[in-house]
Design goal:
This protein is an alpha+beta fold and 301 residues long. The chain folds into 3 domains: 86 residues, Rossmann fold; 121 residues, 2-Layer Sandwich (D-amino Acid Aminotransferase, Chain A, domain 1); 63 residues, ATP-grasp fold, A domain (Dna Ligase, domain 1), CATH 3.30.1490.20. The strands form 4 sheets. The chain has a 5-stranded antiparallel β-sheet with strand order 14-13-12-15-16, sandwiched between helices. The protein has a 4-stranded parallel β-sheet with strand order 2-1-6-7, with helices on both faces. Strand 9 and strand 10 form a beta hairpin. The radius of gyration is 20 Å and the shape is globular.
């Protein structure tokens, strides 16, 4: 197969591993910086160009689109879809998963466990918003935040009111969630490919820190999942429409709770912690499923 990897940095671990795994299995690979692409949108022959040259035909496209370039990145991916190229994850699914509020609403509609979450627009709603999620301690999150940035824990009502007022004063979109104390600063990252979890790691926050992100100094170890946790992770990925996803789960007293579904999960931490060839599994999935024009949405939405 001729594979295009949309990535802004060819040296990133995940990008390198996907390229290596594809080449090992006999495929042709090209890494393309999505921001260097520009598009010719027409009825008969839609195309994508880079530096004055039209890109050749590809069989498959693997999107590794960063959150900061979601809008343009998914537009380019949508163009590939319109050209009949099979995407590992579709543009509509990526856009859906990047909207934290929408993704939680979709998961809730499917009956998938979540932390109790509140969302409001006006400062006058703050007291009821705090009560809605069970009062302090609680977590305040920027809707646009990634890798633990823009996530604050408020341990008292006064602190919660101050943090929420500050974010609202900056016109920032936020949501407020209950704090799951029994998780002990740990969460589970489940790597879902197709209809199964192929690897899972437990991320543990540093002492005095509640965010378990590896970028924030968290540590990762192999995780053993219960059948319920596996089922929850797969259902969450399918609800978003993602073929490959990193599903973050908290272990609570009332079962697994989904925090987030990531459409471009990093591979370094989970391959290191589990010893699993996740990149190879992704390429194998594409070999079995990639068919020209098999994109469900064909660039719609």
């Amino acid at each position: 197969m001729r594979i295009a990897i949309l990535s802004r940095n060819a040296d990133l671990y995940s990008t390198r591993r996907l390229k290596e795994a594809a080449i090992e299995r006999g495929h042709e690979v090209r890494i393309i910086d999505v921001l260097k692409c520009y598009m010719n949108i027409n009825i008969q022959n839609p195309s994508i160009h880079v530096k004055g040259v039209e890109l050749p035909a590809f069989d498959v496209v693997i999107p590794r689109i960063g959150a900061s370039v979601t809008t343009y990145g998914t537009a380019v991916l949508r163009q590939f879809e319109m050209m009949g190229v099979y995407p590992l994850n579709e543009s509509v699914a990526i856009t859906r998963s990047r909207d934290k509020l929408r993704s939680l609403q979709l998961l809730s509609r499917k009956g998938i466990g979540l932390p109790v979450t509140g969302y409001a627009n006006k400062p006058s709603d703050i007291p009821d918003l705090i009560d809605m999620v069970g009062g302090p301690p609680l977590v305040v999150k920027l809707l646009e935040g990634t890798q633990g940035i823009g996530v604050v824990m408020a341990e008292t009502r006064k602190a919660a009111e101050s943090v929420i007022e500050a974010f609202m004063g900056l016109k920032a979109d936020i949501m407020v969630q209950e704090y799951i104390s029994e998780s002990g600063g740990a969460d589970i990252r489940c790597l879902v490919i197709g209809d199964k979890v192929v690897a899972a790691m437990q991320r543990q926050a540093q002492p005095g820190e509640f965010r378990s992100n590896l970028h924030r100094g968290g540590t990762a170890t192999l995780a053993r999942l219960s059948p319920g946790e596996r089922s929850t992770a797969v259902r969450a990925a399918k609800t978003m429409g993602l073929n490959v996803a990193g599903v973050d789960i908290l272990r609570s007293n009332h079962g697994p709770l989904v925090m987030e579904v990531n459409s471009s999960p990093g591979l370094e931490g989970i391959e290191t912690a589990t010893g699993k060839d996740v990149a190879g599994n992704i390429i194998q999935f594409m070999e079995k499923n990639a068919r020209q024009s098999r994109t469900k949405t064909r660039g719609q939405g």
